[in-house]
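Usage example:
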Amino acid sequence: MKKNALLILFIALCTASMLFAAGAVEQQTREGKDITTLEFWTWRPEDVDFYAKQIALFEQANPDIKVVQTAHKNTEYNTILAASLSGGAGPDVFQGRAYGGLATFADSGFLEPLESWMPELKNYSESALLGATSPTDGKIYGSPAVSQTVFMYYNIDIYKELGLSIPKTWGELIQNFDAAKRAGYIPLGNGAKDGWCLETLLGGMGAAFYGGTDFYNAVIAGKKNFEDPAFIRMIEQMKSLTKYMPDMYMGISYEDMRSNFFNEMSPHLIAGSYEAAYFRTQNPKLNFGIFAVPSEKASDPAYVSVYADMNFAMNANSSKKEAAVKFLKFLSSKEFGKSMVTEMKMVSAVPGVDASEDPFIARVLELQKNATPYLFLVGFRYQQPTGSSLWQAAAQGVMAGTLTPRQTAKQIQDGIASYYKPFQK
Amino acid sequence: MHQIQRNKALWIVFFITPGLLVVGTFILLPLFMSLYNSLFSWKQLIRLDFVGLENFKRLLFTFPYQERFFNALKNNTYWFLSTTLLQNTFGLLFGYLLSRNIPGAQFFKRIFFIPVLFSIVAVGFLWGMYLKPSGLVNNFLKLVGLVSFQRAWLGLEHLATPTLILVNIWRWVGFPSLVFLAAIDSVPQECMEAAYLEGVNEWKLFWKIIFPLIIPAITIIMVLTIIGSLNVFEQVYTMTGLDGAPNYSTDTIGTLFYRTAFGSIDAGSPEIGIGSAIGLVIYMLTFAASLLSVFVTKRKEVQL
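Running the assembly step on the lines above writes:
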């Protein structure tokens, strides 16, 4: 009998401990009476110190608000955020994705529209706001934080050694490739094993051939499509670069292509502005510069593809919106933008941020004068099959020679036309 | 009497509950949740209306899911056939040779089994490095003068899946070898001796005596092969990525499922309804194929 009682007690204890464990967290947050505590989530565990410093500055200016930072692993961030937001909980303020990633959360009703809270958003550039706007209702759901730019990295030391200069036409670029090849370098470090790296390649070299922003606007409006001769010619030109790419380029992964560049085996790499910090840590002696891949005629613009990469967003179900807006405004201030530039080496989207202290970012901003939207991410990542997934797979086919440029263009066109209304007319 | 009965029941509950809770929460509940989710339409992360079998219809009959699904299923079939043919045949051969006590049998038994113990992610990562254009495999080919056989093993559409399969066979062949070895070792010695006395040769001995008696082991290995081939995921994920690169040539229903249900959140529009439908199809295929294989091999089984 005694044994029996013990057993029941044990089962009861186990059940009880499970039930009450869940409730324990609730009580702690009610401690401070006048202090509002904000939950702030990021997908950057590597930047925890940076944000802690910024939060300390914010709390100094707003003693009645306390911000608790939580950083999740980048690859798990969306899943965790989606789970807690759909459960009615989640952070008050958080890092949000851009474009289709933003629309996923905005259209699910998890994000607070920000225009009425933050009238200063209208000062942001159109391209930055595009990444924070849901195409479904046209409302702005995030305060744009940083942008990324795709262009050509080049090795200044190798350029000096070979007596090369920054090319002003596509022909000159090819001549530089040939010179590098003769000298025993891999002319262009890019590879094709990871499909998304071919989207980067398109972003770096494609715009001049398909016609930059004019083409972008035309396909968005359905006036042109991806079987346009200019687009097919761009694919042909991309394919022609394979003879300057590494041996067995179909097996060259993202890591391989980056190491081709920072180990100075290759003087060129088409990649995003986010690589610069990584190159500096991997090879502090690397002397690199950047340029926009030129058009065939020197008089035509040399485009760089630009996309918004991160927005600060507010939980639509937050009970502390007044405080959250204060923090959002802080994250959208010029001072915060400047620390993003100087400490994080990122291109801040805040208008009027002084980037002169960092020559690399100043140069990126200079190249952005000929900015064009990063084609498939900006325009066609809202529905399945996304333009990006179609391009990435088909581009691998064309680079490997299993698809022709025309077939590639048709696959992309057919895929997008399956849902994109302007293409169905 | 009544008291004892109740005691016994309580103890049974006590021992069963934890296991039942785990199975219920992590296996049965998700299975029924995905069945439930697959019957609804979804707007992004929000479940909307009941649509019956609409998601299955879209998966099987409309672009692009139809194309992706059957392409992935084709690759799974390819995995199954190659694994059955190569891995299980070699497993049987190795098991047989080990049972014949060839010189160094104890040594080989351990060597063959070591890769089975490795983490699948570590194997994928390491072989991913070996198979790079400048990796171990291509360097070895250069060393032995076969430069013309160097390839971008994981980057070419016609080579990527066979390469993944070979790596997986390298990792897993020790398992069927040991199972077959144990099965062959348990064949009664009298039968073998009687056969030898009758002057039966090794070939006949194998097919007429050993093989029929190890059918239960073959059943187990076949069922495991089917389950394994339908659930291929980690190998592809670690070596060629979630997109089944290059150009979907290594895509499997596992990676397709993951991409559709979760992986595309970044790229907009996760299709949770269709993702759940794929999950359910994987479950049903595994279940049906396993049943079929047990049924077929059961009929061939012999009792001594």
